[in-house]
Design goal:
Strand order of the largest sheet: 1-2-4-3
Radius of gyration: 19 Å
Number of helices: 8
Distance between the termini: 27 Å
Low-confidence stretches: none
Mean pLDDT: 90
Structural class: alpha+beta
Largest sheet: 4 strands, antiparallel
Helix content: 25-40%
Length: 203
C-alpha cells in the first residue's frame, strides 16, 4: 500500500473473523514495531506475543475481570493474536549512564517524560500501521492495573518490565474495518499551531 492509504485505512478493529495469521505475515508486522525510534537508541521495549488458544484465554481471564463479557470483550476475544507491549526502563537508565551520554539528562529516573513508555507506544503504532499494510486489522488498548500481577505470573513477565498497552491483531470481521468513527477527527486547522500556541498554522 501507499503510505497515505495505510494512514487512511488505520482503524481500531474490535472484532475479527477468527482466521489465523500466517507466521511470515505476523513476523513482518512485529518486525515493523522494532523499527520505532527510541531515546538514545536504548531499544527498551519487548513484544510478548500470545497466539495459542490457551494463552489468549489466560490473558482474557486475567485482564477482563469477573462477570459476563460485554460486546467489546466478546469482539476482542475473536482475535487470533494478542501482543503485550512491555517497556524496559532499566535499558534507558543503563544507556544514559554510559560515558558517551553526558549532560543534564543522564539520570533517567528524573525524566519528566517517560521515554520508555513513549518509545514502546511508538512501537505499537508501527504494528498498527504494518497490520493495515498486510491486509490485517489491529486494536491497541490498555492493560488494567489490577490485572498486571496475574499477567506477570501467568506469562513470566519480569518485574523490571512495565505494561504499556496490548494489541489484538487479526483479519477484521466483515464490515468491521470500515466502521466510521462517531467522533470528530481534529484537523490541521484546529490542532496545528504556528509560532505561538493558539495561532493556526497557515501553510
Amino acid at each position: 500500500m501507499e503510505f497515505g492509504e495505510v494512514l487512511r485505512g488505520r482503524r481500531m478493529v474490535r472484532r475479527y473473523d477468527g482466521a489465523p495469521v500466517r507466521d511470515e505475515v505476523l513476523g513482518r508486522v512485529l518486525a515493523a514495531g522494532l523499527r520505532a525510534p527510541s531515546a538514545g537508541n536504548s531499544q527498551g521495549r519487548d513484544l510478548l506475543v500470545l497466539r495459542s488458544a490457551a494463552d489468549r484465554e489466560r490473558f482474557w481471564a486475567c485482564s477482563a475481570g469477573p462477570g459476563p463479557a460485554d460486546a467489546w470483550l466478546e469482539g476482542m476475544r475473536t482475535a487470533p493474536v494478542v501482543v503485550l507491549l512491555l517497556a524496559d526502563p532499566g535499558a534507558y537508565a543503563r544507556r544514559y549512564a554510559a560515558p558517551d551520554k553526558p549532560g543534564p539528562d543522564r539520570d533517567a529516573a528524573a525524566w519528566e517524560v517517560s521515554w520508555p513508555d513513549v518509545d514502546t507506544g511508538m512501537a505499537g503504532l508501527l504494528v498498527l500501521l504494518a497490520a493495515v499494510d498486510a491486509g490485517l486489522g489491529a486494536c491497541l488498548f490498555g492493560v488494567p492495573s489490577a490485572a498486571r500481577p496475574a499477567l506477570r505470573e501467568a506469562f513470566g513477565v519480569p518485574a523490571d518490565r512495565r505494561f504499556v498497552a496490548a494489541l489484538t491483531v487479526g483479519h477484521p470481521a466483515p464490515g468491521e474495518a470500515s466502521r466510521p468513527s462517531r467522533r470528530h477527527r481534529r484537523t490541521v486547522a484546529d490542532a496545528v499551531h504556528e509560532g505561538r500556541f493558539g495561532v493556526p498554522w497557515t501553510g
